[in-house]
Design goal:
The protein is an alpha/beta fold. 35% of the residues lie in helices and 24% in strands.
Length: 180
């Protein structure tokens, strides 16, 4: 099945193509993001809207940063927290609770007009108060996955692969698309 990845972020589109091992059509489409702490519910809503606009099979993603000290917040609201506070301030607020632990959760959704299929992965780790690295976006500068010594933004794509929530979920996507 051929799908169009709905994103306005060129970096995400390039990562998806690299991890799927082939070029991926992508398109920026404005869809409403519902207010829900459940990232899968957000994806279901976005993928239905994207399909209605594009008219052919689509794939969307959403990511959540669940900070232990903030009882799972900001969750899927991380985009707006980052826009408002910046990555360092968000990490500092979370760490100030006494816990630097966090989980990054990603959900991809594919909708062919009949059925929505979700692909989820997560990785635990810790937050650092001052961002490090030059690669990545968002909270990548402050998130150190469990088992690593570097933030995602300090890692090359090859170094990041074994720890990446995105890579784990895209492996499931690739298997699905190969059999669709």
């Amino acid at each position: 099945m051929k799908v169009t990845f709905i994103t306005g972020n060129e970096h995400k589109a390039a990562q998806v193509a690299a991890w799927l091992g082939h070029p991926v059509d992508h398109k920026k489409v404005d869809v409403d993001e519902i207010q829900s702490i459940d990232v899968a519910e957000v994806v279901r809503h976005k993928v239905r809207q994207a399909y209605a606009i594009v008219g052919s099979p689509v794939m969307v993603e959403d990511v959540a940063l669940e900070c232990d000290g903030l009882d799972g917040l900001p969750g899927p609201f991380v985009k707006w927290f980052l826009q408002s506070l910046g990555h360092n301030k968000l990490a500092q607020i979370a760490i100030s609770t006494g816990s630097d632990r966090a989980t990054v959760r990603i959900v991809y959704g594919i909708y062919d007009g009949k059925e929505i299929t979700l692909f989820e992965a997560s990785v635990g780790g810790t937050l650092v108060a001052q961002g490090r690295g030059e690669r990545g976006f968002g909270f990548d500068f402050n998130f150190v996955p469990s088992g690593a010594a570097q933030t995602f933004a300090e890692m090359t794509e090859a170094e990041r692969q074994p720890f990446s929530h995105r890579a784990q979920a895209l492996k499931k996507v690739a298997e699905f698309l190969a059999n669709a």
